[in-house]
Amino acid sequence: MMIMKRLMALVCAAMIPAVVLTACSGDKTDSSSSIVVGIPQDLEDSLDPHEAVAAGTKEILFNIYEGLLKPDENGELVPAVAESYSVSEDGMTYSFNLRDDVKFHDGKNVTAEDVKYSIEKSAGKLGGNSLIGAFDNINEVSVRNNDTVDITLNEPDIDFPAYIANLNASIIPKDNAKPAENPIGTGPYKYVSRSPQENIILKKFDGYWGTPANIENITLKIIPNADSIVMNLNGGAVDMFARLTSAQTQQLNSNFNILEGEMNLVQAVYLNHSVKPFDNVDVCRALSYAVDVDNILELTSDKKGFPVGSSMFPAFKKYYVDLSDSYPTDKEKAKELLAKAGYQDGFTFSITVPSNYQPHVEAAQVVSQQLKDIGVNAEIKLVEWNTWLSDVYAGRQYEATLIGVDASSLTATAMLDRFVSGADNNFTNYSNAEYDALYEKLYSTPTDAGRTEIYKELQKNLAVNAANIYIQDMAEFVALSDKYEGYVFYPLYVQDFAKIKLKTQ
After folding, report:
1. Among 358, 398, 327, which Cα is nearest to 223's?
2. What is the pTM of this model?
3. What is the mean pLDDT of the chain?
């Protein structure tokens, strides 16, 4: 409680006003096999898996859609729509053998033509852009027979199976002209309805090919105001909420079990390198020296986060380099670098933060206070989530933003490709010739050991050049009503509702 009081005393002037939501029993589905899950934002970017961008959207769609392969809770790739696959000797062709018992949520059987269409759509070969950069390497998708689809690459890529397991490579019906309005997948839950800014309803899919879900009905209750989350939980309107702050968990009543894991993301102050003064590396380094990561963890998460120094989190064990000590807190060094860059009197900039993610709001408030010690005024700009997506991520109209960036697949490139100059997902506008050259070498390096070393060098490049003010891989706190059990943490940013069950089941 002392930590919580210290945090409140530090940032109370910057807190957004609370919006009171009444927690009434009428919000919940009257069923012995149902659960209400609170989420901080509506799924506004797209219900089409090939167009979904936001991590908060993808973690929900994980229950509706599947690819040829999918990740499990241990970080392994397991068969999904495909029961197996093989690779040609030259590494250029992947042949996927399809299951014969997979149905879409509309009752139709999945066909090889559906698979071909889905992969080509995901790769941008039917128009538009691919959200999976590695799919630019796809030369051809062909149907060998009713049970086999071949994907031929331009160059060998040992990480290709992991890209196939990406949500953006999900299999959808070829004849569904509007998947964003009528989501149809093959997952354990099917989409029922959506009330914008209120809820999304999912229902157990009885025709699911794999292990069936336990809970019949899922209501995703949208709670965009962080101050209302605890009220909804304690009042009984919500049975589960993931990614709470440490302070929020301390306010919950005894009806909840608090589960703790890792978010598997990189929380940082992401800098827009196309705007001044962040086009000057000395300024970026100065801010990194001024920020005290240990203090942020102490004030926001009872020291339960995992400090990181680059754009990779510890769960990527083979590729991860611990660079968390790259910028030990040194206010005088920070002032020297600012003076060198011509900002001896400091400067003012804004940190844009989505208001529905309280852990990021709290971290931004601490960072803002810390930067005052070197004469830098960081003004916090709270925005709604859809505004963040349109203005910051897509429009790149911002100076700095504090957010957590996750991996879309079980590949190191999923965290590192966003810093290549000109990449569609390079929302920080980072541009470094050495980084680009290193990344390009990945595609001509034949061995896993060689590629692993390049991944590590890329991380070091980001650290040395203070590409962002790196903070932590956040500890994840999940509140789950004591009526339920079975929640499982994944090494990716997903929520697996199918494994949750009533304790009587």
Report:
1. 358
2. 0.78
3. 90
